[in-house]
Amino acid sequence: MCSVEGAKKLAAYQAVDNHIKSGYKIGIGSGSTVVYAVDRLAQRVENENINIICVPTSFQSRQLILKNNLTLSDLEVASQLDICIDGADEVDCNLNLIKGGGGCLLQEKIVASCSKELIVIADYTKNSSLLGQQYKKGIPIEVSPLAYVPIKKRLEQLYKGEAVLRMAVNKAGPVVTDNGNFVLDWKNFDQSLDWNKVNLDLIQWPGVIETGLFINMAKKAYFGMQDGSVKVQS
Ligand SMILES: O=C[C@H](O)[C@H](O)[C@H](O)COP(=O)(O)O
Questions:
Q1: Most buried among 71, 87, 90, 224, by the most CB within 10 A?
Q2: What pTM does this model have?
Q3: Is 162 in the active site?
């Protein structure tokens, strides 16, 4: 039996081994699974002397790149990336994703959109048929602090469910993202919604900065499984 941490590592190592080539400019996602991908990248730089450039998607991811002595860049210098490797909170059968459990959705979506391909790495708990089936913490929506109440009300009125302001731990008040915004977690939504339509609608609302719905963006997902295998979904 493979633990959840073991499963994350399996997926991350296999994705890095299968997809990363010397000369690549790589978007580095955020979260706990990406830690293993960066670990593997550092091993390959050390052992195979591959030459790579890494663009982070959050403060955490930037720190990871620096800590592992990888070459740090940004979208001003490298605006076209070969690949982005990132985790997800949930992946449905069409490779649509919920992301932003760690509040990094905005930079993650920007970096993924500048990459030729987005490869997802995850453990078996993220593998789902429908969004919301496994992940119960809600779809993160990054909003301007000024607009969180009107957006919450509008969302609940139009699409039902409940949008909850994400609160900080060990700090009084809300979570403030790397970009100075708040996060609403939209829970108990109707799982049969057309997520492409919902996403296109939400991102037009004044005050919505970005949604954690990554629709038609991922090319492949690697899931570390309980039996120690890796399931690849294309
Ligand atoms: O904001 C966080 C990101 O979207 C993460 O990629 C996502 O939450 C998955 O993180 P983890 O690998 O820790 O499950």
A1: 224
A2: 0.97
A3: no
31 lines ligand 1 (CB under 6 A): yes
Residue 80 has pLDDT above 90, yes or no: yes
Output the residue whose Cα is nearest ligand 1's atom 6. 87
Q: Which domains does the chain have, with CATH numbers?
A: 4-128+215-228 (3.40.50.1360), 139-210 (3.30.70.260)
- Residues 150-208 pLDDT 10s: 999 999 999 999 999 999 999 999 999 999 999 999 999 999 999 999 999 999 999 99
Set 5, 90, 108, 156: catalytic member: 108
Q: With a 6 A CB cut-off, is 132 part of the ligand 1 pocket?
A: no
Ligand 1 atom 9 nearest Cα: 88
